[in-house]
């Protein structure tokens, strides 16, 4: 089929003229945002690519973080590298320094570099950025999405709600009824799902939920003891804490030590992620294992498949979380 015939089909599906479809394809102004979005989706559905974008790509996968702070970033790098090596690709790592997003002009710069594909971590892109990458045949996948990605956006996540429920259920089964939560930013989908899972477990056990015991705390100062001190300095302090990351859990460890509380004798702590450092904590940390390496592996595999088959369906995969019981939890004294 000729380019004109393909573009004509796109225009018909989007209910616009061929001239308007061409404007969207070539990033020209003069198209209303809602029309541009409709045409972009039709272009993607038809696998349309601007002439000349079939050039050889650079043999690398770009892994983009908002910030490189945190041990969990390395787990994702290890997973992506493992798959990249198997396909004679390399992995480059960068940080956007933009909250849950990418900087203006980022997508155009990526298009010029022509990588094998892009993996974005806990981020999203504008419709224009998505169109820029698709029209240049640069596949992208989002790992651990910050929000709810559009149906046509490939993404890899994990069962955060089930993980939060498993953490709370473990503490409840030990006999804890007053449980604090140190959570991440509540504008992250993963944080909300983990806290919702916690709430569901409490509700299923007919236990009251004290919202004053649920503290949201940014990742920029993740290891801070401050949230834990706020919880544990109360006269009605919790007997257990569920932290939505292992690093936050270690902050709770420091808070307990500073107040003369022993883990798990005086306080039980459950983390989330199961980073390598969790097993070396004192005492070893009970945590919910999030398969970070496997998530990155699946994302890299999907990038490779989308590079070979641009019209392949956009997968939305959630990998299973599981509770890992160690020595930081016990029955309340």
Notes on the structure:
With 333 residues, the protein is α/β, with parallel strands linked by helices. The protein has three domains: 3-45; 58-158 and 292-319, Response regulator (Rossmann fold), CATH 3.40.50; 160-291, Response regulator (Rossmann fold). The protein has helices at 3-14, 18-25, 33-45, 72-86, 106-113, 127-135, 160-174, 189-204, 226-232, 246-258, 292-308; strands spanning 58-65, 90-95, 115-121, 140-143, 155-158, 179-183, 214-216, 240-243, 268-273, 286-289, 316-319, 322-324. α8 (189-204) links the parallel β6 and β7 (214-216). The longest helix has 17 residues, at 292-308. Mean pLDDT is 89; it is low at 1-5.
Task: Please give the structural blueprint.
Elements: H1 3-14, H2 18-25, H3 33-45, E1 58-65, H4 72-86, E2 90-95, H5 106-113, E3 115-121, H6 127-135, E4 140-143, E5 155-158, H7 160-174, E6 179-183, H8 189-204, E7 214-216, H9 226-232, E8 240-243, H10 246-258, E9 268-273, E10 286-289, H11 292-308, E11 316-319, E12 322-324
């Amino acid at each position: 089929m000729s380019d004109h015939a393909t573009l004509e089909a796109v225009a018909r599906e989007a209910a616009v003229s061929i001239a308007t479809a061409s404007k969207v394809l070539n990033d020209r102004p003069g198209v209303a945002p809602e029309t541009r979005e409709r045409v972009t989706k039709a272009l993607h559905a038809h696998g349309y690519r601007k002439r000349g974008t079939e050039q050889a790509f650079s043999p690398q996968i770009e892994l983009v973080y908002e910030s490189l702070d945190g041990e969990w970033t390395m787990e994702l790098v290890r997973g992506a590298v493992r798959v990249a090596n198997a396909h004679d690709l390399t992995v480059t790592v960068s940080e956007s320094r933009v909250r849950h997003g990418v900087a203006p002009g980022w997508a155009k710069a990526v298009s010029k570099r022509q990588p094998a594909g892009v993996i974005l971590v806990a981020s999203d892109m504008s419709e224009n950025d998505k169109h820029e990458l698709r029209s240049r045949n640069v596949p992208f996948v989002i790992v651990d999405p910050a929000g709810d990605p559009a149906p046509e956006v490939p993404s890899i996540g994990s069962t955060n709600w089930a993980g939060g429920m498993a953490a709370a259920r473990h503490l409840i089964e030990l006999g804890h009824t007053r449980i604090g939560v140190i959570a991440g930013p509540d504008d992250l989908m993963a944080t909300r799902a983990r806290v919702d899972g916690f709430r569901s477990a409490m509700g299923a056990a007919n236990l009251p939920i004290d919202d004053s015991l649920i503290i949201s705390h940014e990742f920029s100062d993740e290891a801070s003891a401050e949230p834990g001190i706020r919880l544990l300095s109360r006269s009605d302090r919790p007997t257990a804490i569920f932290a939505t990351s292992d690093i936050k859990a270690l902050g709770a460890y420091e808070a307990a030590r500073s107040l003369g509380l022993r883990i798990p004798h005086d306080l039980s702590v459950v983390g989330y992620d199961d980073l390598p450092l969790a097993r070396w904590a004192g005492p070893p940390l009970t945590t919910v294992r999030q398969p970070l390496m496997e998530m990155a592996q699946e994302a890299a595999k999907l990038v490779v498949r989308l590079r070979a088959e641009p019209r392949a369906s956009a997968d939305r995969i959630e990998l299973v979380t599981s509770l890992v019981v160690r020595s930081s939890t016990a029955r309340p004294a």
